[in-house]
Design a protein that fits this description.
The protein contains eight helices and 15 strands. By secondary structure, it is of the alpha/beta class. Helix 1 (about 15-30) crosses helix 3.
Length: about 260
């Protein structure tokens, strides 16, 4: 698809590296003279769009609408800085994490402290289970150390995360799916579910995300199956857990996080 498209519209992501990478991919796909429209909220990278496009060698026109900046340009015959932006945003192996990752994926360049706390406190599981919002596979690597785990379904809404997880998890017991837990589960009779559920949507806190994850876990678990959940201390998930599970046990609270075990 390189240099073949005549027009493209891009909603740019907020992260600087991720945004430049996305714009670079768009410019690479356009034929010289192809029209590019890029927009983003003013407070989430929109104010930087014009400067970044000019850095690639584009002559832009800029407008504002509904708190967004909208930049349009034609793809020039000669681009500058494209290879650098593509390299900065591309998948890479992080020696500190010991895993493949990519800018834009949740906690892409550090170990999320909630996941780290949960990882340190997970029991040895048996049977078949799931990792909801698996990311690049941090928790899955620990879960699959258990010799009695027979199958682990790994789900994430971010395609980049599942692609990195496929590189990081070389275990035939793992099944990795690019899917929204809230609508793409299609699993039942599980012995265990592990999760560090999201609670932000578009930068705004949305407690309904984690609540939906909990409900889906309850649907997927067999009677007697267990859910292990880590969450920020302020999130009121207890009200959702207690009606769905026969036993809800606080297991750990530290560094602003809490861990629960809930038995179906």
């Amino acid at each position: 698809m390189d240099a073949s498209l005549t027009e493209m519209v891009v909603l740019a992501p907020p992260g600087t590296v991720e945004r430049r990478y996305t714009i670079a991919l768009a410019l690479k796909a356009l034929a010289p003279g192809g029209r590019l429209t890029v927009l983003a909220p003013k407070d989430k990278g929109g104010s930087r769009l014009a400067k970044e496009l000019k850095g690639f060698g584009c002559e832009i026109s800029e407008t504002s609408r509904r708190h967004h900046r909208i930049c349009t340009c034609e793809r020039p015959a000669q681009l500058s800085g494209l290879d650098e932006a593509l390299a900065e945003g591309a998948p890479r192996f992080d020696d500190a994490l010991g895993a493949w990752t990519q800018p834009g994926v949740f906690s892409w360049n550090r170990l999320d402290p909630g996941s780290a706390l949960l990882e340190q406190n997970l029991p040895a599981f048996s049977g078949k289970g799931a990792d909801f919002g698996c990311g690049t596979g941090t928790l899955a690597r620990t879960i699959l150390k258990g010799p009695n785990v027979t199958h682990l379904l790994m789900l994430d809404i971010d395609r980049r995360a599942t692609e990195m997880a496929e590189r990081n998890i070389e275990d035939t017991r793992a099944e990795i799916r690019w899917a929204d837990v809230r609508s793409g589960l299609h699993a039942s009779g599980l012995d265990f579910v592990v999760m560090n559920p999201p609670f932000h949507d578009g930068g705004a806190e949305d407690q309904g995300l984690g609540q939906s994850f909990i409900r889906k876990a309850a649907e997927a678990l067999r009677p007697g199956g267990v859910l292990w959940l880590v969450a920020n201390r302020h999130l009121p998930y207890e009200g959702v857990l207690k009606p769905l599970f026969k036993r809800v046990t606080p297991k750990m609270e530290a560094a602003g996080y809490k861990i629960y075990e809930a038995q179906k």
